[in-house]
Amino acid sequence: MTGVAVAGAGITRHGFFPARSWKDLIVEASLAAVADAGMDLGRIDGGMVSCTLPETFEQQNLGAVTADELGLTPVPFGQLVGACAGGLMAVQAGIRMIQSGAHRCVLVAGVEKQSDTTTTADSMLSYVDADFEAAAGFDFVDTMALMHARYLQVHGTSEEAVAAFAVADRWYARHNPVAVDTGRPDITTADVLDSGWVSKPITRAACGRACDGSSAVVLVAADEVPDAPVIAGIAQATGPNGLAAKFGHPGYDGDIVRALPTAIAADSAYRQAGIGAGDVDVAQVHDCFTIMGSLHLEGLGIFPAGKAALAVQAGETALDGRCPANTDGGRIGLGHPTGTTGINVVVESVRQLRREAGVRQVRDPEVAVCQAMGGNNSTSAVAVLRRATGRSRHVGAE
């Protein structure tokens, strides 16, 4: 156990808001998290800010600027960049601040403002290796498309099964009032497959929705808020970034259809929490594309290798399924403001453990797992959250 709990969580509506500044968004989410914790800003004695693409709104040193906007100076605030995993890595950094004994109440916030860039695709060109993939004309979507195609080839999975992830995401998202897809009708696998190629075999509807948004959590020493969800384990791992390096890496068994950093981070987080994959009641995984959602469910050990897409298609991640997943709508349905995505998954886990998710509420969850990927499947962070009272009904079971 980390000895750290999530006292409060806040999130803004996700979408495109060209008239709003990143400061507006991060202040809204931060104040919501502090209010949710039932405290005032004066309790915050440290902070971390995650943002993947601050160059889109021409600002760096976001930690200090955020502290100033919230009226928290001279409280120490830092900025952390870890691609799309940065939000969860910032949560890990906030935990370490409390564990060090130097802090008792830390605000961790993420923000992204994709509407400030020319195109969301252009803003992510630097995610691939600049010396290899980018130089060869590959962008981020192309590398994921190769993983998608290879998954189909290796496991014999159908396109319909992989597309089912977007269908499941949409159902959850339309019931989430802060999601990009809130209130929109359900979609079918045919809708996903017929939405036009982005980079074959990835279609438009199979992509995460780059957008504006912010979220925040308030972390405190667990003994201060005994009724708050506890972060029972958290870890981050890295792997090779280049596709060629993945093929040659022994940990990948000579292939690219394995979420190796997720598997390594999950093993560490599970050991810290004293659980196994079978103890997980609800999961939030990184689905920047449908294929990546399935790969990370496998990396977490929730489904065997090559079986996650079929499990999603069979309804095993639906609300009444074996392990409901991406109950906020995921990156495809909620939206994917990259710098805050790793905090979004914590916010949704907290909502689920506190039984506050409304129509999306999973029945009696005790253990929640959340995961965020960064870069070309080259880094992953995993956190295990437990409900404050009681133990998982699975723990100790054979």
Automatic annotation (TrEMBL):
<dbReference type="InterPro" id="IPR020616">
    <property type="entry name" value="Thiolase_N"/>
</dbReference>
<feature type="domain" description="Thiolase C-terminal">
    <location>
        <begin position="257"/>
        <end position="387"/>
    </location>
</feature>
<feature type="domain" description="Thiolase N-terminal">
    <location>
        <begin position="12"/>
        <end position="177"/>
    </location>
</feature>
<dbReference type="Pfam" id="PF22691">
    <property type="entry name" value="Thiolase_C_1"/>
</dbReference>
<dbReference type="InterPro" id="IPR016039">
    <property type="entry name" value="Thiolase-like"/>
</dbReference>
<protein>
    <recommendedName>
        <fullName>Acetyl-CoA acetyltransferase</fullName>
    </recommendedName>
</protein>
<dbReference type="InterPro" id="IPR002155">
    <property type="entry name" value="Thiolase"/>
</dbReference>
<dbReference type="GO" id="GO:0016747">
    <property type="term" value="F:acyltransferase activity, transferring groups other than amino-acyl groups"/>
</dbReference>
<dbReference type="Pfam" id="PF00108">
    <property type="entry name" value="Thiolase_N"/>
</dbReference>
<dbReference type="InterPro" id="IPR055140">
    <property type="entry name" value="Thiolase_C_2"/>
</dbReference>
